[in-house]
Amino acid sequence: MPRRIIRALNALSVCAFSLTLSGCIGTWGIAPQSKTLQANTLTTDAAIRAAAQDAHWPDQQWWQAYGDPQLARWIALALQGSPTMAMAAARVREARAMAGVIEADENCRSTASPASSATTGPKTSSMAPARCPVPTPGTTMPPWA
């Protein structure tokens, strides 16, 4: 017989043996011995307060508690080039502003083709694309305002 068929039969026999063996397994009287607690009898407030006091979280330098110099070096290397949250938020605001400028520039330009004007009429009085002035980055007021 080919090797592929032998491998398939071996896998099938392992599965059949496992299924047969699992049918013979029983619990033999093993049952849980505890009772279910009612939710209204649990006092979670004190447990949460105690956990918050024990955890001392969030600590700015949480890795110092482990006393691992290698971890401290890795964290120092990671923090060395990473921006602060304020810097990251400023970058997000700048990216959103630039996306708004690009979107405004794209919305100002209209394309007209002879095929579209024949069925719907011209969208503008001129067939040339309209142009909008684009503010330079870093300016607060657009030049046309």
Describe the structure in your own words.
With 145 residues, the protein is mostly helical. The chain is 52% helix and 0% strand. The protein is extended, with a radius of gyration of 35 Å.
Rg, Cα atoms, Å: 35 Å
Mean pLDDT: 75
How would you sum up the global shape? Answer: extended
Count of DSSP strands: 0
Largest sheet: none
Query: First CA to last CA: what distance?
Result: 86 Å
Structural class category? mainly alpha
Question: Counting H and I runs of at least 4 residues, what is the number of helices?
Answer: 5
Spans of at least 5 consecutive residues whose pLDDT stays below 50 are none
Helix content: 40-55%
| Percentage beta strand | under 5%
Give me the strand/helix succession: HHHHH
Briefly characterize the structure.
Helices cover 52% and strands 0% of the residues. The chain is mostly helical.
Summarize the SSE layout with pairings.
Blueprint: H1 3-23, H2 44-55, H3 69-80, H4 85-108, H5 114-120
Task: Sum up the structure in keywords.
mainly alpha, 145 residues
